[in-house]
Predict the structure.
Amino acid sequence: MARQLTVTAQSWPIAGGFTISRGTKTAAEVVVVELSDNGIHGRGECVPYARYGETVDSVCAVIESIRAKLESGADRQRLQSLLPAGAARNAVDCALWDLEAKAAGKRVHELLGFAAPKPLTTAYTLSLGSAAEMGDAAAAASHRPLIKVKLGGEGDDARLRAVRAAAPRSRLIIDANEGWTPGDAASYFKLCREVGVELIEQPFPAGNDAVLADMDHPVTICADESVHGLASLDAIAGRYDAINIKLDKTGGLTEALALAAEAEARGLMIMVGCMLATSLAMAPAMIVAQHASVVDLDGPLLLAGDRDPGIRFDGSIMQPAPAELWG
């Protein structure tokens, strides 16, 4: 039987809502790719992201545009030139990894020559809200070892102080989602050092981050929107101390692994993050995250429900993904 492609849009409700500086979501809108070949099924999941001009419909259309090539046997290497980096390529790339592993009767880490994945401690993300709301959320999450705080500009000082007061023992990282201006930076950096923030993601818009090259910062600065794949690294040199690798940005596990290796060679700290998605999207990211300094793969923890089987979370500890899920 020839290889068959199935592309499905799915909506997974979020537990409550989730707000960042660019807006609020009530559901994770994902696209799932399944490739079937001789009774073996490989799956991958992606999250179309409006920040990069993606929608569910556009991502599905991009994948459909290479249906004939995929069904005639295009492999992961060929895929890299068929599609640009982004959500569509991610879903297909991860489905191909899953299919390859199942056909070989091995796990993906074995195909790569890696050790078996170990449990990881993930950050737990607090949605953007008022200082009082975020303080309450931090209190409820104060048992978690690592909390990620979504910020967005005006009022961030009060938000951050409220979170620290409510979760005094948790490690803190923050994500400004491009919401700060260079004029804000000195006071925010000082506050971050004062309250013990360990890392700041993307403080300025990706197109306006050159100022970081000449800006003293006492806290590790991590590129998110400013880095996608290998081609992004030269442009961020001297600006950032770390990069956040997300498979929906790199266009899959294949590019993510190459990006991680090259970033480490350049002395950059590695963070592995995610969009709001199910365990199917987290499983391949866990392969990259095995040697990351910061892991932020809490997508399923923020949903009202997850896949069955999914990744088991013991508090903030992620157990390795089951073979029935992926890889």
